[in-house]
Specification:
Low-confidence stretches: 1-15
Number of helices: 12
Shape: globular
Radius of gyration: 23 Å
Mean pLDDT: 90
Helix content: 25-40%
Strand order of the largest sheet: 5-4-3-2-6-7
Number of strands: 20
Largest sheet: 6 strands, mixed
Length: 415
């Protein structure tokens, strides 16, 4: 059914890669700064990475132009932080650290793209976030209502918006659909984010001690993520059997005695990834191990059958069959089973009767749970199959066979 790969104690040891910035941050007490340097706005920005980002922005602008043509529109106004992060290919422009609302607006037509910012935000935005990406600036005093400049730009024009705005057409769902398929650059960013997130979760699991609280552990993990420029969008730490009682627990001042399950969603360069790991102090009891194996098998089944063009409802049907076959027929009713992920932590839920068809290069997380056990990673699906971007690193694994194909899933770290 499932076998543990290798010696768990050996797999739990830290990798000896001192030159790797991410691994340095994964240590319990990192001493070196790990954040990448801020670009110098006084230097010529014609470099390889900026050229790739500019090309990505140009491609997104073309998507918007196609959207305008298809719907008979003349412009698009973006006011959500995740929408603007998508259009700017990773600009960090939230109004606050992890807010949905943006600190600026972006207005795009067929021929131009502009950032609408107040005088407080404009310098930082154009030096640190969108330098060299072909944006114009429409600046206003910080005390002036932005509705004046938006009214001037959109007067007598058919304009769509991702936020409700007077006189504009609210098209949040259709605009959201533009970003469902990740570009090659976005896949690269998500891959790097997934590795960073995974190492941070696993390092946290290896280093906290019995008797620390869920909140303590969440703090350890947040520290590791923030040092790497990852925004901890969501942190969940469930001690012992709390996950069986509350399937979506927040962290509390509850001491961890025997076991903890940690789920984290992190955002960097606009994109989000999510993963779950479980650590046990001492041997895991047989009942929990069996439940974890069932969750891993449901997860592997969902991953295997998540293909471009596949209806979500069909993947869900196969997952329910595994629950039933392994004598847990009602567990899927007790918790969310998964979600699309991308520039928002939840781009959309995955339901048994969902009409959603999986697109090429789309990111998603299946997150089945059985009692207090959960299995979850972020994957990207494409014509070749799937890529697990949060694949377990220095961690015990299960081998799950689906239709003769072996899919490794994270096991339980025993300390």
């Amino acid at each position: 059914m499932a076998t543990v790969l290798g010696d768990q104690a050996a797999l739990g040891e830290r990798l000896d890669l001192p030159a790797d910035r991410v691994m340095i941050t994964a240590e319990d007490r990192p001493g070196d700064s790990s954040l990448p340097a801020v670009a110098d706005p006084t230097v010529d920005h014609v470099d390889g990475e900026l050229a790739r980002r500019r090309a990505d922005v140009d491609a997104k602008h073309q998507q918007v132009i196609n959207f305008l043509d298809e719907h008979g529109l003349e412009g698009v106004l973006l006011g959500r932080a995740d929408s603007i992060a998508w259009f700017t290919s990773g600009g960090e422009l939230g109004q606050t650290y992890a807010s949905d609302g943006a600190a600026v607006f972006v207005y795009a037509t067929r021929t131009t793209r502009a950032v609408l910012a107040d005088n407080v935000q404009s310098a930082r935005v154009f030096e640190e976030e969108v330098a060299g990406l072909g944006f114009q600036l429409k600046e206003r005093p910080w005390y002036q209502d932005p509705s004046r400049i938006i009214a001037e730009l959109t007067h007598n024009k058919a304009v769509a918006s991702d936020i409700p705005w007077p006189e504009l057409r609210f098209e949040a769902d259709r605009l959201l659909a533009l970003r469902r398929s990740l570009s090659p650059r976005e896949r690269q960013i998500l891959r790097a984010l997934g590795r960073t997130l995974t190492l941070a979760i696993e390092a946290t699991c290896r280093n906290f001690q019995p008797g620390e609280t869920e909140a303590d552990v969440a703090g350890h993990l947040a520290h590791r993520l923030i040092r790497e420029g990852v925004v901890p969008v969501d942190l969940r730490v469930a001690s012992d059997d709390r996950l069986a009682r509350f399937r979506q627990p927040t962290f509390k001042a509850v001491e961890i005695r025997h076991r903890a399950t940690i789920t984290a969603t992190g955002r960097r360069h606009g994109l989000c990834a999510s993963a779950t790991r479980t650590v046990s102090f001492g041997c895991v009891d047989a009942d929990f191990r069996a439940r974890h194996a069932v969750a891993a098998m449901v997860d592997a089944t969902c991953i295997y059958f998540s293909r471009p063009g596949e209806p979500v409802s069909e993947v869900f049907r196969r997952a329910r069959r595994i629950y039933e076959k392994l004598e847990h027929p009602h567990e899927w009713e007790l918790d969310d089973q998964g979600f699309l992920i991308g520039y928002a932590a939840r781009e959309g839920s995955l339901h048994p009767d969902s009409a959603t068809i999986l697109r090429p290069h789309s990111a998603l997380c299946w997150s089945p749970s059985v009692g207090a056990a959960r299995s979850e990673d972020t994957i990207v699906v494409d014509a070749r199959g799937f890529e697990v971007v949060t694949e377990a690193q220095s961690w015990p694994k299960f081998e799950v066979s689906v239709k003769g194909f072996t899919i490794p899933r994270p096991g339980i770290l025993e300390r």
